[in-house]
Amino acid sequence: MALTGRIPREFRNLSFLVSLDLESNNFQGNLPQEMARLHRLNFLRLSFNSFSGEVPSWFGFLDQVQVLSLRNNSFTGSLPSSFFNISKLEMLNLAFNSLEGHIPVSLANASRLQTLELSYNSLQGNIPEGIGNLHNMNSLNRVIAFTGNSLSGDLPNGLCNGVPILKGLYLSINKLRGHMPTSLSNCSQLQIFSLSENEFDGPIHSEIGRLSNLQILGVGTNHFSGIIPQEIGNLVNLMELWMEENQMTGSVPISIFNISVLQVFSLSRNNLNGFLPRKIGNLTKMQLLYLEQNRLTGEIPKEISNLIELEELQLGRNRFSGPLTMEIFNISGLRVIYLSFNNLSGSLPPNLGSLLPNIEELYLSDINNLVGTIPHSISNFSELTILDLSYNKLTGLIPSSLGYLTHLQF
């Protein structure tokens, strides 16, 4: 409602208040300590305002609170341990503030906690071992989110022993390290699991295949190594697989191409080799396919044309060879094609401009061997912003129709 100012101290007189929701306004300043007298409060939502100052420790006196949401404010200081002494607390959301210090070990006391959201602060130190004591997470949410902090150390071994019905585990953009614990396979209900942008190393264990409910798996930008286990094909509900910027070796497991609901497939910047199998045509729901900067060889299979929902195709910086696969140009929804730095041959189709109505970026440069001319029909690419055909063997005149590409930047 675009309300401004501060919360008045007279709120203390609302002694029968059960629910207080002031979200999405422009309130500012410190929270008045007099609010600690609202002992009947069950729900307190103050998110998306401009409250500042240290998070009040007196929240611990609100012993009836079940939902406490303070996200997207300007709170500073450390996370008060008193929060986790609120015996009925089910949801705590402090994301997008400026909190620092460690996550208190008293976290283990919050036995009814169902959602713990501390993302995008400046928290440091280890994740407390007591996180495994949150065994009463029995709501539909069941989320632990620590993304975007400076947490370090290994993952607690008992992370999923106490919370097997956890549905979301967000740990990306931290400084966590060590191996991925095999005990994570105990989180049998896990749907979203994100460890991207950390310092994990070692193998990705075959036990990952036991997380049959997984929908999003993010382990990109780490130091994982070894082969991708075939058991990953057991994740039949997987819609997004992010494994880019690691040190994975071997070939792409054939079992992955049985995951018919897969929409995002990102294995870029690894050390993968071998062929791209024809079974890639099974992934008809695919929208984003990122395999650039590996050592993949052979021809790009024609079956790729089955990916009718594909929007971005990035296969550059590999060792693909043979003729440029014309079937790629039949995927009308493509916005980005990146095939540069391969060893492809052949020519561009004369009717190229009528085949890709949504194309925005087209990269076919460097170490390819394309011949022939640039088709005049390329002027039909009304949304094209980037066109790179350099370092090929193209001949003839540069079409004057390129001047009609008003969005072209490069």
Describe this structure in words.
Helix content is 0%, strand content 27%. The chain contains no helices and 33 strands. The strands form 4 sheets. It has a 16-stranded parallel β-sheet, with no helix packed on it. A 7-stranded parallel β-sheet has the order 9-11-13-15-17-19-21, with no helix packed on it. The two termini are 45 Å apart. The mean pLDDT is 93.
Main beta sheet: 16 strands, parallel
Strand content: 25-35%
If helices are DSSP runs of H or I spanning 4 or more residues, what is the number of helices? Answer: 0
Overall morphology: elongated
Helix content class: under 10%
Query: Uncertain segments of ≥5 residues (pLDDT<50)?
Result: none
Class per helix and strand makeup = mainly beta
Number of strands: 33
Q: Give the strand order of the largest sheet, numbering strands 1, 2, ... along the chain.
A: 2-4-6-8-10-12-14-16-18-20-22-24-26-28-30-32
The radius of gyration is 26 Å
Q: Determine the N-to-C terminus distance.
A: 45 Å
Mean pLDDT across every amino acid position? 93
Task: Summarize the SSE layout with pairings.
Elements: E1 4-5, E2 19-21, E3 26-29, E4 43-45, E5 50-54, E6 67-69, E7 74-76, E8 91-93, E9 100-102, E10 115-117, E11 122-125, E12 143-145, E13 150-153, E14 168-170, E15 175-178, E16 192-194, E17 199-202, E18 216-218, E19 223-227, E20 240-242, E21 247-249, E22 264-266, E23 273-275, E24 288-290, E25 295-298, E26 312-314, E27 319-323, E28 336-338, E29 343-347, E30 361-363, E31 369-372, E32 386-388, E33 393-394
Parallel strand pairs: 1-3, 2-4, 3-5, 4-6, 5-7, 6-8, 8-10, 9-11, 10-12, 11-13, 12-14, 13-15, 14-16, 15-17, 16-18, 17-19, 18-20, 19-21, 20-22, 22-24, 23-25, 24-26, 25-27, 26-28, 27-29, 28-30, 29-31, 30-32, 31-33
